[in-house]
Amino acid sequence: MLSESEGYDLLKGYGVPVPQYRIVMTPHDAADAAETIGFPVVMKIISPQIVHKSDAGGVVVGVGSREAAVAAFEKIISGAKKYNNDAEIKGVIVEQQAEPGLELIIGGKTDPAFGKVLTFGMGGTLVELMKDITLRILPLDEETVRQMVKEINGYPLITGYRGMKPKDEEALVSTLMAVNRFFLENENVVEFDINPLRLYEQGALAVDARVIVT
Ligand code: ADP
Ligand code: MG
Question: In what residue span(s) does the ATP-grasp domain sit (predicted)?
Fold first, then answer.
């Protein structure tokens, strides 16, 4: 599994919008990084053994000061050790905190019969519960991507539900096309997910990336 930052770097190269970030190894550097990026920031554990970072107390959002960054660093490291004492800790990622938005998921897997498949749907922590996901075999053309977007049950949340302003469907389509290219062109990528991708009235931002390579 690639680290979150390696996932971001790879995805960014294909045009997927990702947050600004720094990787730090000490509380002091965490405070410096947070100050450079600009408060508030989100801080997360980096460990190949910790796949679901929140489960390990490994995600702190809303870090608003140098003191808070120091405290968050210590909390994240001690949480990770408590969760799995054998987990190899590669540091802490300090990220630009994204505005709230509609949380979507874009995923990929390799099916033994069909090959590379792209999934898209409602994301965030409710993803398991909602099961509002659509999928297609790669490669995808733009028309297919537009169909995928329209066929999820949550589509009205994108076009503007009950007075909510419409979200940036074009940014979503271009992100899906970028992810399609990323998956096609990287033979060694067998599975990945971007959960969540936050979609806004203008633009989108991936705020987590998990990429599995062979
Ligand atoms: P996990 O490994 O538990 O999936 P995530 O990186 O997805 O960890 O973080 C958990 C949640 O924290 C996300 O679903 C998102 O709501 C929020 N979050 C994570 N990163 C950011 C960020 N950079 N800005 C704002 N919210 C974030
Ligand atoms: Mg996640």
Answer: 8-44
